Amino acid sequence: MPQMIFVNLPVKDIETTKGFFGKLGFSFNPQFSDERTACLVISDTIFAMLLEEPRFKDFTKKEITDASTHTEVILALSAESREKVDELADAALAAGGSPANETQDLGFMYGRSFQDPDHHIWEVVWMDPAAVEAGGQPA
Asked: Given a cut of 90, is residue 131 above it in pLDDT?
């Protein structure tokens, strides 16, 4: 599986946001969308996870930045294995990064996160390819 990027963005109203991007010609992956989240397909390997603010808050201990006055994102990178997740997260910490959140291990999905020196949060995630084919659930 090629490395992909998922940009997570907080939104005030998911339907308004979906309507806007739909008008721009973008599509959404329904397997990874629900009433509070929309997976905006940017390319075969680039996606924006658009999350209503309360759902976005589930992924950070920090306050949500007001994008009208500040800029902030959570950047998520895929990894080809659990070991690659650990390698990248450990390297980031060794290079001066700091921990962001607890390790997530759901069996079919494994992830770690760190903050870069500017305090941007980066998540590195491995997901079992069979789970991807099954719509994000364990096979």
From this structure: no
